[in-house]
Write a sequence for this structure.
């Protein structure tokens, strides 16, 4: 059966077709995206329809920081699997990973583990709310599917629109959670001050370590001041940004002073593992309120994370990735200029992105066109990407040659005003 038909049937069996919005073909190329993979190594993906692609897109939504099926990590995982992964007794690696992580987050003394990012965030919010009477959470960015976060849209359906995902309906979220969270735009320190002035019952702040941009120095300064003056608990979500530009969170480079930090995604190079790391006075509450789950003590995630960190340290992966990301971003800018295309870019270098920027054209048509034409060049590509250690300089140069070719084609389409695939454009909203 072809991928296209499998997806059609999957939509009947699985609501939405799969468990993760970001891997749905509608977000890339509604008809034509390969959708299913057979096997993957490095940046190579063989689709179920037996086509080979180089992945210059989301690399398993940022999990495969070392590349797919990294031999160093996989070897250690396989060895662990052969010795048993979930027994009556605990695995030693949970302790080892806690020790390792605390070396990188010097402000913290304790760690709790989970598997997914969203559940780790829910854990962090519970811990923070257990530690303060000021239960309202001020947040910036995306933090998962749990009630505490989606409840932001109870008071205004557009509250989350500037925080990655648009149109999230607060269906099934208890109305009693209305106004328990308050959104603030990333790097908007003036708004942040206003919110905490107005809401005396707001005692927790959640920000991402970086998304499209780095944390600005004024935003960081304001957060550190609020923390000192109002004793707010500062949680930094590094689920997506973490490990890409330093060992641990990018908050360190920005000078932000957190109370709790969350990692996920890249931490296990694709094996599920997430961590909530924080000050003892808050983390201890995690054992007073009830937080516990069977799958969290399974061994593979810990082993994978230890191996991934080891590999990252030995190979200075974060330096490598940032350098390559910067190069790709700058190359997009010069290639767009060369081909008379108008783009804007975001400069979190390890996750670079560009946006076509035309006033009278639906830019999503152009982004879809880019994906379609790059697919013909045998690349999985969209207008944003997660850089991995497995993207070699040689392959990056080949990819950029294809970008050049595709930008030229888009430029010609624009001149002739032929935007053929407007009916089948991608849809990023929920
Ligand atoms: C910053 C951030 N927080 C939380 C999450 C949720 O993590 P997960 O999808 O593993 O539940 C994500 C996922 O994209 C994220 O980017």
């Amino acid at each position: 059966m072809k991928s296209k038909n499998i997806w059609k049937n999957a939509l009947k069996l699985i609501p939405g077709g799969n468990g993760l919005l970001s891997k749905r073909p509608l977000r890339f190329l509604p008809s034509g995206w390969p959708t299913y993979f057979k096997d993957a190594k490095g940046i190579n993906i063989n689709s179920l329809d037996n086509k080979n692609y180089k992945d210059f897109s989301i690399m398993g939504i940022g999990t495969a920081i070392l590349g797919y099926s990294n031999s160093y990590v996989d070897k250690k995982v396989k060895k662990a699997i052969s010795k048993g992964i979930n027994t009556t007794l605990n695995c030693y690696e949970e302790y080892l990973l806690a020790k390792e992580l605390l070396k990188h987050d010097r402000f913290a003394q304790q760690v709790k583990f989970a598997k997914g990012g969203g559940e780790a965030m829910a854990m962090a919010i519970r811990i923070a709310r257990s530690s303060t009477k000021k239960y309202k959470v001020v947040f910036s960015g995306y933090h998962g599917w749990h009630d505490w976060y989606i409840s932001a849209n109870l008071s205004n359906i557009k509250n989350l629109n500037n925080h990655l995902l648009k149109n999230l309906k607060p269906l099934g979220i208890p109305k009693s959670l209305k106004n328990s969270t308050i959104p603030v735009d990333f790097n908007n320190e003036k708004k942040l001050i206003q919110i905490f002035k107005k809401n005396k019952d707001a005692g927790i702040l959640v920000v991402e370590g970086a998304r499209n941009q780095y944390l600005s120095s004024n935003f960081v300064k304001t957060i550190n001041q609020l923390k000192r003056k109002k004793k707010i608990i500062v949680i930094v979500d590094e689920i997506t940004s973490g490990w890409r530009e330093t060992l641990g969170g990018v908050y360190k480079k920005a000078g932000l002073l957190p109370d709790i930090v969350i990692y996920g995604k890249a931490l296990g190079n694709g094996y599920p593992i997430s961590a909530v790391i924080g000050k003892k006075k808050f983390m201890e509450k995690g054992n007073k309120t009830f937080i516990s789950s069977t799958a969290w003590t399974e061994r593979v995630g810990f082993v994978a994370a230890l191996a991934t960190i080891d590999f990252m340290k030995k190979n200075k992966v974060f330096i490598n990735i940032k350098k390559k990301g910067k190069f790709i971003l700058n190359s997009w800018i010069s290639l767009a200029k060369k081909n008379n295309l108008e783009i804007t870019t975001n400069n979190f270098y390890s996750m670079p992105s560009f946006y076509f920027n035309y006033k009278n054209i639906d830019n999503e048509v152009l982004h879809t066109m880019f994906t379609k034409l790059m697919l013909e060049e045998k690349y999985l590509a969209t207008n944003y990407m997660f850089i991995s250690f497995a993207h070699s300089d040689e392959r990056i140069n080949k990819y950029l040659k294809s970008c050049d070719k595709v930008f030229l084609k888009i430029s010609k389409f624009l001149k002739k005003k032929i935007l053929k695939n407007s009916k089948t454009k991608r849809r990023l909203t929920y």
